[in-house]
Fold this protein.
Amino acid sequence: MTARERIVAADKARVWHPYAPMDEYLASDPLVVARAEGAWLYDVDGRAYLDANASWWTSVLGHRHPRLVAALTSQLAQLDHCALAGITHAPAAELAEALLARSPGMSRIFYVDDGSTAVEAAIKLSVQHARQTGRPGRHKLVTLGDSVHGDTVGAASVSGVEVFRRPFGAILFETIRVDVSSPAREGWARAFAQLSDVVRRDADAIAAVILEPVVQGAAGMLIYPPELLREARRATAEHDVTLILDEVFTGYGRTGAFWASEHAGVSADLVCTAKGFSGGMLPMGAVLATERIFDAFRGARDRAFYYGHSFTGNPLGAAVGREVLRVFDDERVLEGVAPRTARIRATFERLGRRGGVARARSLGMVGALDLEGGGGYLAGAGWRVFDEARRRGAYLRPLGDVVYVTPSINVPLDDLDRLLAIVEESVEAALRA
Ligand SMILES: Cc1ncc(COP(=O)(O)O)c(C=O)c1O
């Protein structure tokens, strides 16, 4: 048995994979990743693959950025972990200062483990905030169409993609969902107008509106005009309804600005962040809050936010998260987005004009296309492109019939050009077959 065969045998006998139909997985010949560096994953046999989705959108500065590796190892030599309940440490305090300094309107940070727990915490914060500001009847959440905010029960309750919700319908809590009838501009405009109407009409029952700003990621990289976000901010502010912006996917430069909300010039009451927050190196996230929200949790003991995870504020994650921000500054990462965006846009515009592609779109470091035929998340079409890309040296996991790239924000231009060429060749090959 080769090393690869041994790993695959052990894995197939024991490991239950996320978001994977297991019969298909068990019949497959999986990638076995041994090493990663920059934009590349290397398998156990030394074959290299461009990481087209930055490992589920986390690795915003590329894999094993030397400065993040150094920050992690130097922190590990000092303090691995300690609880954050009423005691503190330098990484938690310093990361808080640095991240809040670049988050207009936000003044407090609550650490969590990942994107889903950021959303869970934000939901609870909004409901407890309403209660502690004398409005206990405000406990509903308003969500938009096919949003995806994570997989824990609370996060799934405010998410809309039917195939992910269906098995759990009986235990998810009720939300007010505003559907988006079409991905065209008018569809989005109608949905946001309806969302504002709902807020105006039902404000007395609503704790918060939760939105993915500008791009709905897992729904299929759906991009909407930023000005619509301003409309949602106006309606929520008028009626003192908390606005939660879920920047778990869109934050840390993904759309070209550090926060996607900057495209609209709006500032939320609560911001959820994870993924790029720790450069994709460790599972960690946070909720940012305004001082106004924080104030409602001061005073008597029973007003505290009784919430936290074992690893809340983990020093290793926080030290890496602090270094991520330094790298963004020192390496002027956001300034490098424009030439990368232009390349992604040109490729996806070209692909959008091709037969077999229903539509294409791009924004910042996101490029996506829908293959004709529909079928949504369970469609097989994207997987044919995946197979072609794998043969050509890229890991290009689709979202059903949506083929997309979300490489690291600082992906070297040569690697990006190679990736985009593979995407074009793979779409061509899959559609020819
Ligand atoms: C917008 C958004 N929010 C929350 C989550 C959940 O994050 P995590 O997978 O870290 O729990 C995701 C995951 O893709 C996401 O895209």
